[in-house]
Amino acid sequence: DVQLKGPYQKWLHTHTFEEKNGGIRMTDQVIYRPPFGLLGRLSNLVFIRKQIAAIFEYRRQQLDRLFGESL
Which of 24, 53, 55, 63 has its CA 20 to 30 A from that of 43? Predict the structure, then answer.
């Protein structure tokens, strides 16, 4: 996923899938840059990074609920 318009100066999100222990393991990689220069970098340290982690943790929990526990 590439953000063309939105809150981040840069957002690149990739998924990789691999077979593991009879199931499929999905791994996310997110490269992003918040806006507003130094203020954005400070916000990232305090707020943004934790929010993004929480979003992906929620998705992991929902995938576990739908398809079984994560590997």
Answer: 63
Residue 30: other Cβ atoms inside 10 A: 14
Position of tokens 């499929």? 24
- Predicted TM-score (pTM) of the model is 0.78
Nearest to 15 by CA among 52, 54, 56: 56
DSSP state of 4: S
Rounded Cα distance, 71 and 9, in Å: 33
How many whole angstroms separate alpha carbon 1 and alpha carbon 26? Answer: 15
